[in-house]
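ingest -> validate -> predict -> emit
validate: passed (alphabet ok, no gaps, 197 aa)
predict: started
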Amino acid sequence: MFPVHNRPNWGVPLLLACVNSTLVSGCALPQRVTRASASECAAKTGASSPVGRMFNEAYMQCLREKSDILVAEERERADAKAERLAREYVHSLEAECQNFGFSAGTPEMSSCKMQLYQLKKAQDAQVTQQNAFHARCRAIYSSRLLAPTNSGSSGESFTSAANAYNNCMAGLSTPMPTQNNYYCSRAGNGTVFCQER
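emit:
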């Protein structure tokens, strides 16, 4: 038992560490707060000390408002980036279709872009599925490699792991697509037909 006057105060250092590190960046309440925003809120609410900030509801409310603004700005930037990427993707489809001889603003162009989109989407889904399949087979390989063997030799471990990996990969029904290579042409009666080359 420590004497009262010598008893270490574990709470205060930890509290100050929390205030100085996490509170400045928004504590546990706001999601995002910059150091500049924290300083602005401190000046605005008169919360000059770290402990004073922690128990100052006006200061915490200011932090929450700053956090909401920053989160909204991040979301707007993410939405703007997604929209820009979508436009670029549509333009790339249109450029491909123009290379196939279709004119912008025509039904043939719309059909060409839609078919290319569907073909690429299907291939992307296949690639994602096969990547997951490969990851599972690699995990099986690693697991067998680390598993104990009867002889305890590394050679047996490698052989067991390789056999397990090959057995897993044997279940892959289709080969991994090697390239995105398509061709679209007029099929008569104003229709467009797109296929993989």
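The chain has two domains: 10-73, 82-196.
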